Amino acid sequence: MSKPSLNPKALANQPSSEEHYQRTLTRVNQIQSHLSNAPRSQRLQGKTCIITGVGSLHGIGRASALLFAHEGAHHLYLLDFSGENLPDLKATIQKAYPDVKVTTLQADAADDSAISNLCSQALKEEGRLDVFFANAGFASSDSLSNITAEGFMESMRVNTLSCFLAVKYGSEAMVKVNPSRGKHLSGGSIILTASVAGLRSGAGTVDCRLSQVNSIAKTSVYQLQKTDIRVNSICPGLIETNMTKDMFDFARQRGNGGKLGQLNPMGRFGVAQEIAQMALFLASDEASYVNGQNIAVDGGLSSSHPVVPGRWA
Question: pTM for the full model?
Fold first, then answer.
């Protein structure tokens, strides 16, 4: 039996590789400049929020902090392992959104005391915690044969333990009511950054498999039954951040920038602002019935088994 051939009519309707790449760059620019043109709204009005992993200048955490401020968050507690870019982030938010309180902290998101104390600080200062976006993490490039036991456990500590601590201490804070601060019932949203690599193999190394984070989101909600505390994970696909910078730079230097993200149906990579929008939705009351989910934001990459593009498997 011969293989099904490509459909000539379908191919005729598709842009050339160069046209598609230029369209991708235009679209990405529109997404990244969205806040400069969009009117402010109040989707997070009155909410006290913690975001970890905010230090990267092109990262998901920074993009989310700016978006949360744009959407009216009352107080943002922003944490990163490196303090290098924290002053700039705080100044940027305060200049654009002077009504938003900003507290920055240089600390390890996988440090038990640091996360416990941060949640306690939010309760002491604001009387409530509404959102905890556990975004801190990293990805290695080690192959199976090169991963050491120490390296593997460090990956688990940074990527998984940090999410566990966010759920543990975040939920303890969110369950507390404080009518004087407008919180008459327990509740809140905990968001974990995982990866499409945690849904199925092929999108990352062995030690950065984030299925454990996805499992935390699914299992913890049954420990938090009837509290209105929601826990969900976001599973990004190929996103251009400082973490993936080397890959993007290498592809572009070789003239292969147009191939970045070619395996997903949209045929392009994503940017941090697109993940931030999902975090915003999950943080807002609009997602009040979304709970225990692992949500892929990957251009459709995880929607299919591997196939040759343009052919039926």
Answer: 0.89
Strand partners, 188: 229
Least confident of 181-185, 208-212, 216-220, 282-286: 208-212
User: Which pLDDT score, from 0 to 100, does residue 242 have?
Assistant: 75
Pairwise CA distance, residues 107 & 78, whole Å: 10
Task: Report CA dihedral (85, 171, 70, 33) to the nearest 10 degrees.
Answer: 60
Q: Which of 55-59, 64-68, 197-201 has the highest mean pLDDT?
A: 64-68
Q: Which of 70, 87, 78 is nearest to 49 (CA)?
A: 78
Look-up of token digits 């959407």: 71
Residue with tokens 């309707």: 13
Q: How far apart are the C-alpha atoms of 105 and 7, rounded to whole Å?
A: 55
Calculate what percentage of the chain has a pLDDT beyond 70. 84
Burial (0-12, 13-18, 19+ Cβ within 10 Å), 175: middle
Tokens found for residue 202: 């092929």
**Total Cβ atoms within 10 A of residue 65:** 28
Nearest of 231, 234, 226 to residue 278 by alpha carbon: 234
pLDDT tens column, 158-207:
899 999 999 999 999 999 999 999 999 999 999 999 988 777 665 555 54
Quick: pLDDT tens for 72-94. 999 999 999 999 999 999 999 99
181-218 in b/e form (b: 16+ CB < 10 A) is eebeeebbbbbbbbbbbbbeeebbbebbbbbebbbbbe
Structure tokens at 206: 């062995």
Contact 126, 75 (CB under 8 A): yes
- The pair phi, psi for residue 17, each rounded to 5°, is -60, -40
